[in-house]
Description:
The protein is an all-alpha fold. The protein contains 13 helices and no strands. It is globular, with a radius of gyration of 24 Å.
Amino acid sequence: MVPILIVLLGILAIALVYYRFRFVYLSRKKRQFLPKISDALTELTFSGLEGEGLKNEINKFKKRFPYHKHWFRKLLLSSIIDLSLNLKGDLIYQVREIYMAFGLHKNSLKLIKSSFWYTKCKGIYHFQALNFVHGQKYIKPYISSKNEILRSNAFIAHLYLTTEPFDFLVDYSFPLSSVNEYKVIDVFYMKKEPIPKNIDKWLDANNESIVILGLKVMVFYNYTGAAEKIISLINHKYYRIREEVILSIR
Length: 250
C-alpha cells in the first residue's frame, strides 16, 4: 500500500503544481487580452456592420488574436455577454449578431446538449443573456426536466426568448420558487408583455405557484377585474396563497 500511496501523492502534487501554473498563465493572458477584446467588441458593436461586412471584420479579429485557443474563446464569450447585459435598445441585437458571426452560438448549443445538467445551464444562460431567440427550441424541452435547477433555468430562459403570449403559463404544472415568481414579473417588465388574456383562469389553476403568480401579475398591472375572486381566495387551504391574497388586496 505504501508505494501506491506515494505514487498517488506524487500524481496529486504534480496535478496541483500544473493547475497552479496554468491558473497563473491564464490570469496573465486574461489581463493582457481583456482590454483589447473589449475595445474590439465596442468598435464592432457601434460600427453597425452587418452580413459580409461584419464577417470580414471578425475574420480580421481572428487573425489578430489566438482565437483557436479554448481559453480565449471563453474569454471572448464572457466579454460578449457582459457587453450585452450592459447595453439597451437595438445595440443588444448588434451584439447578438456578433455572437452569431463568431459562431459562438454553436459552442453554447454544445453545452446545452451536454450530458451534465450544470453544463446545460451554462449554455441556456448564454442564449438567454444574448437574446438568442433561435435557440429557444433547444431550451423548451427542459422546462419539464426532472432536475429542479435545470428546469428552473430553462423556464426563465424560455420566457425571455419565447414569442408566444404568456397565456400558456396557466397550464404549467411544476412548482416555482419565490425567486422565480419575481423573475417572471421581471420578464413581464423587461419585455413589456401585455397581461395574459386568460389571467382570471390563473386563480383557478391546480398549481399553487400559478395562482400566486396570477395574483402578482394582477397587482403588477393594477388589474381589478377579478376582485371578487381574489377576495374569495382569502380562505384558501394553502398558506402561501392566503398570504399573497392579503398582499394583493392591500
